[in-house]
Amino acid sequence: MKLFAENILLSDGWHQNQTLTIDNGIITDIHSGKDDDATVLSGPVIPGMINCHSHAFQRGFAGFSEQGSETNDSFWTWRKIMYQFVDNISVEQAQVIASQLYIEMLKAGYTRVAEFHYLHHDKDGSNHPELSAMAKAIFAASKSTGIGLTMLPVMYRFSGFGPLPAVAGQKRFINSIEQFNQLVSDCFEITQHQENCNVGIAPHSLRAVDKESLVAAVNHVRGLDDKAPIHIHIAEQQKEVNDCIAHYNKRPVQWLLDNMPLDQHWCLIHATHIDEQEVDGIIASSAIAGICPTTEANLGDGIFPTTEFMAKGGQVAIGSDSHISVSAIEEIRLLEYAQRLIKQQRAILANNKTRSVGQNLWQHAAKAGALSTSCNSGELAIGKQADLLVLNSEQTRLFANQNKNLLDSFIFASQQNPINDVMVNGQWQIQNGEHKLQQLSADAFAKALRDIAGNCA
Ligand SMILES: [Zn+2]
Questions:
Q1: Active site residue 273
Q2: What is the 3-state secondary structure (H, E, C) of the chain?
């Protein structure tokens, strides 16, 4: 297949009048000029974004926990509502919710998702006849919608440092070390029969796994694939940091740096509360920081020191986590705005090479996201996977259509979704803003939510 773009953001910046050849999902050639057999794309072309952190089922109760109460509302009260919802989801409903979410993600510019998947067991906590039944629902949602998938089965063993035994609300998450490693192996097997997906692991957090479990899980997955992504919730809440210091006498990121062989395929999700030594340690290890600005704002987590981290060469991927928002644009915008509000300055996350904040952050986050998921995308270049977005030229024309402002207008000034078409792995999944399954999916989603809400009441 050949595509012609009048304006395209390649690895080294904007280029005009380029023909791309795509073979088996891979960009095999890029050259100047228009080939006669190339399909003309309707607007500016940019790389697809990687969503480094998703709990798909949480899309089902987004907006259900925004009512004030007399007690102090916090992450920990939100988690109670989440556990109620979790108790009532079937395998089929999990697939329906994930499918709807993945269509929304594609429309919002995400071409791949890292699914931090911890809803493993049946409603009463017993094993499904097939250990990977819930994981299979996620794989099926990715396959039917066409979004790339990095499946990260979550190891969840305890309710807190100590270790403290799991509580009732966590019964669907818990696995022994052996059972967890079996689940990971089963997921690897599934990838043999499905395109554009890979597998890593996600030890839930230092409060939910002890050192023995963590070492066993890391050794197992890296034995299967030495580039397998490893993601962990690390320092989302101040309470979690304090509990870690009380137990290990170290802050969580510092403990991880001192005890585990971090590399560029480790992603530290919500590295929110870190000190300067931890900033330096993460960068020295090449690990990626996985930041979820809208969820972190929604849950009142705190603000990651993005300015200092990126200035020193640290890499930041973005995720939509609880899916209170499903928009790559909004995550990037808030990443920058949080820094402006703290520092009372403007246009912070640019650099000398790329003066445009929007362009710098889009390219940076896409590449960091690709590293964090060990996938061959995140930029448009020969040899990379054809994961790309075509922007609406009518809307971008409103922004004067100058390349130096284009992604800033896209990120900071769009009032409607400016993404027209989305290609994943060489195949169109969104065309003219529409996905072929969107109506079916929306109807099934609405029904699933009604049914689950009925059971929760
Ligand atoms: Zn999370």
A1: no
A2: CEEEEEEEEECCEEEEEEEEEEECCEEEEEEECCCCCCEECCCCEEECEEEEEECHHHHHHCCCCCCCCCCCCCHHHHHHHHHHHHCCCCHHHHHHHHHHHHHHHHHCCEEEEEEEECCCCCCCCCCCCCCCHHHHHHHHHHHHHCCEEEEEEEECCCCECCCECCCHHHCCCCCCHHHHHHHHHHHHHHHCCCCCEEECEEECECCCCCHHHHHHHHHHHHHHCCCCCEEEECCCCHHHHHHHHHHHCCCHHHHHHHHCCCCCCEEEECCCCCCHHHHHHHHHHCCEEEECHHHHHHCCCCCCCHHHHHHCCCCEEECCECCCCCCHHHHHHHHHHHHHHHHCCCCCCCCCCCCCHHHHHHHHHHHHHHHHCCCCCCCCCCCCECCEEEECHHHHHHCCCCHHHHHHHHHHHCCCCCEEEEEECCEEEEECCECCCHHHHHHHHHHHHHHHHHHHC
